[in-house]
């Protein structure tokens, strides 16, 4: 499986965290969830953001790779 890419996060002054993917907002974390995310983000930021936003292992990756539109 390829590595997650294109994720970024921003800490806001109110303590919330906004996670973006490809420049679009994927998730906004507040309170304890934001604090837990910030504690974990140092290890593998791209993979962690993919998991926290739910954009991770949909189960159709193998099928989608074989679709004519995705062949190169």
What report would you give on this structure?
The chain has helices at residues 31-40, 45-53, 61-66, and strands spanning 7-11, 17-21, 24-29. The protein has 72 residues and is α+β, with helices and mostly antiparallel strands. It has a three-stranded antiparallel sheet with strand order 1-2-3. The chain is elongated, with a radius of gyration of 14 Å. The mean pLDDT is 79.
Q: What are its keywords?
A:
3 helices, 72 residues, alpha+beta, 35% helix, 22% strand, 3 strands
Can you write the helix and strand succession as a string? Answer: EEEHHH
DSSP summary: helix tally: 3
Helix residue percentage:
25-40%
Computed over alpha carbons, the radius of gyration is 14 Å
Strand count, sense and barrel status of the largest sheet are:
3 strands, antiparallel
Number of strands: 3
Main sheet: strand order: 1-2-3
Structural class: alpha+beta
Shape descriptor reads elongated
Unreliable stretches covering 5 or more consecutive residues: none
Beta content comes to 15-25%
Q: What is the terminal separation in angstroms?
A: 18 Å
Average pLDDT over all residues: 79
Summarize the structure.
This protein is of the alpha+beta class. It is built from 3 helices and 3 strands, in the order βββααα. A hairpin with a 5-residue loop joins β1 and β2.
